[in-house]
Amino acid sequence: YEPLWIIPELAWVPVLVMPFAAVFAVVGMTNSNPTSTGQERAIERDQPALGITRVTRHPFLMGVALWAASHIVANGEVASVIFFGGFLVLAIIGPLNIDAKLRHRRPDAWQKLAQTTSIVPFVAILQGRNTFEWRELGWWRIALSLALYAVLWAVHASFTGAPIVLGG
After folding, report:
1. Cα three-residue angle 124-98-65, rounded to 5 degrees
2. What whole-number distance in Å separates Cα of residue 75 and Cα of residue 45?
3. Calpha distance 84→152 (Å, rounded)
4. Statement: the pTM of the whole predicted model exceeds 0.85
5. Which of 19, 75, 134, 157 lies at a C-alpha separation of 20 to 30 Å from 48?
């Protein structure tokens, strides 16, 4: 254990961020997405960005990025920076690589997708290039995400060996 920073108040960061990470991961894995393996043909639809893809082209990887970044902030020690940092780097570089492959394979369809979506969550919506549609996410996906978060909260210490410590 080699601490880099010790700020007990930062223990709340993953507690607050992880529900969003779970939603991105679960909804991303259970919703059609033209950037996902085996679903590239969805890029040819009239509206390629539906559901969580309206929010981000890479929902699962954005969930991984939130998970990793929040745990780096809260843990503040070398092993966590190395472990979670590796996932964070992959979650940042992965979307760029996936986008480059799609841009090369299907340039016209890619252009339409890129114009209505963004890598960074909510940017396309905030810029007016898309809209947020709750109904396309599916309430069951949100419920499943939050149930997963609750289960992970409950088993965190036994699964990882690290208890969830909040503050002081």
Report:
1. 65
2. 43
3. 17
4. yes
5. 19
